Amino acid sequence: MIPDQPLLQYKSLDDIRARKDQLRKELRSENQSMKTQWNSLFHKEESNLPSHRFANIMSTGVSVFDGLILVWKLYNKYGNNHRKVKTKNKSKNILSALFSL
User: Fold this and answer.
1) Start-to-end CA span in the chain (Å)
2) For residue 75, how many other CB atoms are within 10 A of its CB?
3) Any residues with CB less than 8 A from the CB of 19 and at least 6 apart, and which?
4) pLDDT value at residue 88
C-alpha cells in the first residue's frame, strides 16, 4: 500500500474495473514517456550533411589507424622471437615486462 494515498474503498466490481483501467492508462503513458527519454539518450540523429559524413569517416579512420599502431607496438615489444633476451631467471624477465607497462 502506498502511504501518501488515502485508502480507496470499492463498492462494486465496476469500481475495481474502473480503477484498473485508470492505472493501466497511467502505466502506458509512463511507459511511453520512458521510451521517448531512452531513445533520446541513446539514439543519435543521423545527419546527411557532407561535413558530418566526412567527420565520421575521418574519426573512424583515425581510430583504426590508432588501433593498428597499438597492435604494431605490442607485437614489436612482445611478439618478436628473434630478439631473445638472455637472462638467468625468465620469471624475472616476464615480471619486469608486466610491471614496466
Assistant:
1) 57
2) 10
3) 8, 10
4) 53
Could you tell me the pTM of the whole model? 0.39
Burial call 20-37: b when 16+ CB within 10 Å, e when fewer: eeeeeeeeeeeeeeeeee
Residue for cell digits 539518450?
Answer: 41
Sequence letter at residue 58: M
Cβ pair 7, 1 in contact under 8 A: yes
Q: What is the dihedral of CA 89, 91, 94, 99, to 10 degrees?
A: -110
From first to last of its 101 residues, the chain has per-residue pLDDT tens of 455 666 778 889 999 999 999 999 999 999 999 999 988 888 777 778 889 889 989 999 999 999 999 999 999 888 876 555 555 555 556 666 666 65
What is the spatial distance between Cα 15 and Cα 21, in angstroms, rounded to a whole number?
10
Grid look-up 599502431 returns 69
